Amino acid sequence: MSDTQFDRKAWLARIGYAGPLTPTLDTLNQLIFAHAHAIAYETLDIMLGRPPRLDVPTLQRKMIESRRGGYCFEQNMLFRAGLRSLGYSITSLQGRVVRGLEIDAPRPAIHMLLKVDLPEGTYLADVGFGNLAPTSALMLVPEIEQETPHEVMRFIDVGGELTLQARLRHGWQHIYRVIPYPRYDGEYEITNWYTATHPDTPYQGNIIVAKPGPNRSRITMYNARVTVRDADGHAEKRRLATENEFRDVLRGEFGLNLSDQEIDACVAVMKAKGTGDAPHPFFA
């Protein structure tokens, strides 16, 4: 999966970024913020029977030219290509998602992450974790509270794996454990195929979309439930009832370029296979 065909100009236009391009920490933070706000986390192609492809040309066609979103492998693969085009030193990593679980839960490595080496130190970059992806780079050191444009975050060492936590309304919440060893792209291909095709993954039957919003808010859609969480952790929830409401939210609030037929098909799959309004720990 070579990055040589990456169109940096088109990517920067898509995320609305016109700032400095020198590979510094400040530029990295601005790029994370811009990318996260412009390209929503979403898994709708999986519902439509289209397992994501991770080659750079396909990612560009989907998320840049077609103005769609993507999930962790798509998002961080595209972001990695953008960072490398600017001269950043990147190591690809994986994480064990423990959102809503015990901090040391025996979880598989199903999340893609990026490690960025900078003069100031080693940082985590992640634009692909749905409703709690960090909106700035985080130094990979434990026990230090780090401000982001949204939540305060920190890492806790658990058996040699740094666990990312976010401080929410009811205290520190676990997100994922970072495995500190480099990964090959072939390993992402295997994990992507598993998460996109296994019948028990939540992506098969549920509409899952997320995006950071203005004023440190977060907006998450899980089936017909749309949740907007403000900077203080207060959540406002509403339920969608009609096809037009689904279309308005997916296109208007999340900026997804989807046809009526695609949205209607996702709603039909949701009604047939989804878990309804049942809470999911990863997308609370």
UniProtKB/TrEMBL annotation:
Keywords: Transferase. Pfam families: Acetyltransf_2. The keyword Protease does not apply. GO terms for molecular function: acetyltransferase activity. Gene3D superfamilies: Arylamine N-acetyltransferase, Cysteine proteinases. The keyword Transferase applies. InterPro entries: Arylamine_N-AcTrfase, Papain-like_cys_pep_sf. Belongs to the arylamine N-acetyltransferase family. This is N-hydroxyarylamine O-acetyltransferase. It comes from Bradyrhizobium stylosanthis. The lineage of its organism: Bacteria, Pseudomonadati, Pseudomonadota, Alphaproteobacteria, Hyphomicrobiales.
